[in-house]
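Format notes (please read before filing issues)

Several people have asked whether sequences and structure tokens are stored in separate files. They are not. Every record keeps both together, in the order shown below: the sequence lines, then the token lines. Line labels are part of the format and must not be stripped during preprocessing.
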Amino acid sequence: MEQLWLSLLAALVASYIFVFLILKNLNQWWFVTRHGRRYNLPPGDMGWPLIGTLLPFLQAFRSGRPDSFIHLFAYKYGKIGMYKTYLFGSPSVIVTVPEVCRHVLMNDEQFGFGYSKATRILTGSKALNTVPKPEHRRLRRLIASLISGNEALSLYIGHVEGIVVTCLEEWASMKKPVEFLSEMKTVAFKVLLHIFIGANTAAFIDRMEKLYNDFHLGFMSSPVDLPGTTFSRALKARNELIKIFENVLKEKRENLKKKVAENRKKDMTDLLLEVRDEDGQGLDDGCIIDLLIGFFFAGHETSAHSIMRAIMFLSENPETLQKAKAEQEQIVKARPADAQHKGLTMKEIKQMEYLFKVIDETLRKTSLAFTLSRETKVDVNLNGYTIPKGWKILVWTRAVHMDPEIYENPQKFDPSRWENPKRRGGSFIPFGAGMRLCPGIDLSKLEIAIFLHYFIHGGFRLERVNPNCPENHLPLPRPTDNCLARVVRDS
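Then the structure lines:
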């Protein structure tokens, strides 16, 4: 019997040695130790083989305490703002120092996009995140005025207004609660379809939304193209989207040749067909299609979630809501009595100074993209550390936006913090920075501002059914009930 117990004890000791001294340190040996002193990497935890630190990451985000993941690194290794780890299938360095974050995002010579293989395949070979640097610059120059110029943005105001007003009236007339986030996603999709290709029929919108749902899920999947897999469905959805956009372009080109006069405002596809570079070269159909697919993907979820959050924050902060309401009322009141245009103008939107502080504070506090991924093109010296070529740099935006040393009382929703902002470079990066800065910032903020204007000035309120329901932080932060609520209009 004694011999049996000794054998069991020896087996336990051997198992412990194998699991915790060998297996647990395999990643550390493979990615760090075996290179000797060649790389001076920051401290951190490489985790387990294959999965790295994915389990504590999931535990933190699914527990409703997403910031605890980074706090654990800071507790173990000190608040140095850079930590090595193995996450999302790659050896990585997490960065939370604003100046270092900005350097990574601004430096295209040493850092490229760190998107997954599935993302690169699904966005297409001519998308902004996949084309070579010279072509990227050319595309940015060509599309800049179409998605951020005042002339183009002014064209889009009417597209947004009609959809927003109709949906608000419809929700307020309903007797039952709605999943506000789900409704906002549909609204955002209607707006984008109307702005980008001029489509507004219910059947077409429904079809496109279903295709994009399958397409979107593929970005978070393994790039395995087997029947029934999420990635396979996403590829199929992309092919369907390509066919749809090809037909749209074909029809528009035929109309241009025939000089067909259309009694409607121009959409973005019209403008993309017309745009020319300094050599007189335009965009081919494949490029336009990949751009449109990318714009839909980037703008659909972001706008919907941001609008929902802004309204939730305003509902929870009556003084802030009243200040925003007073500004909107003043803007409308200042209109000339004989003004023919009863809707918003670009001039009025630019006067919404406080509302845009509300939007920026919403973006900061929500941090929809909790990290921005880059990949080292060469061995890089970063803040005194040497990062090997091919490693991912995870710019942890959430940690930056919620750092009490940067933002006093960061958990508080406080638009006044933007009145005289003295921010460190890289401390506000919801859309990234540098050459790879999201090109749709102005269009996204325009859409959010228009919706908030009509919601606030129209006297609408959001009455949540489960105001204390828990939050789900993956893939994007949202209430688990999708913000089930009644939209009520004060009489």
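For reference, the curators noted about this record: The chain has 18 helices and 13 strands. The chain has a mean pLDDT of 88.
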